[in-house]
TrEMBL record:
Gene source species: Mytilus galloprovincialis
InterPro entries: 6-blade_b-propeller_TolB-like
Protein name: B box-type domain-containing protein
Amino acid sequence: MPVYRCYECSNVLCNDCCINHDKLTNTEYHIFQSTNDKMLLNNKFEVSNEINDMKALPGGLLVIALYDSDKLLTYSVSDKQRNEISVGGLTNNIAILDRNTVVVMLTGKYIVVDSIAIVDIRQKQVIQHVDVTLVLPTYSYIPMFYTDDQLYISSRSVITVMDMSGTIDRKIDLGFRPTDMCYDTKAARIYCIDDSENKLICIDRDGNTIFTFTDTGLTNPKRLTIDNEGYVLILCRISYGGNFEIHRVSPDGKSGEVIITGKQLNSYFTSGKALSSICFQEESDEVVIGINGTVYTYKKK
């Protein structure tokens, strides 16, 4: 009975054939997904290093921050063109300001954030550098989003709210350390991952808890985003290689389900950090996932 689909071979396979796939075809690192998945892998490409963060701009343009790189990578989904933008520091994470502009957190070689760069993606240049000093959490990624002319930056168990000049407006004590967070503009809610407890925590902009979602299948959650319907999409790393799941949680936090699975028989990673990212292309209704140095895009069946 077919239970997996191989993207590279365009074949459906039973469990035994999937296990023996690489031996039978003399291939490595093919990606499989369950035939029960609600979204289908329709594109896959490699980048030059592991992915710290990735955001989707209108028009099918992906903006990617690579590990240990001082350049932003842009990739056009429509024509597959790639460009690099020098930003003056090692890229960590990205927040979208508007259709053409992003903010990039820049770090030093160790554990300190040096500054943020405001980057015009269309003009391929840095507009401004703003000095910001934050201590990186142990997982070396600082979640950040932008709304109402302010940046919300999470470091350890506090969200720092500042304007675009770097002036701090206030701090929100959380009581837990989010490994990622995102903002639902329509509902004015912040969604956070507490991976130490395998939880999704929804809070308002003052830090008050709206709901907490837990599920026995929600293991090792790392990154999250929001789709067009307000559902939260959570990327869970099933192993330190290429295996992952995407869980979709309802906006009220009352239900969740797995909609995407990714499986590699010969899972591997390059630098040992096992980095990952997820974003959502609103115009094309696609989920975009970065695992190590590979980008996958999924569409509804």
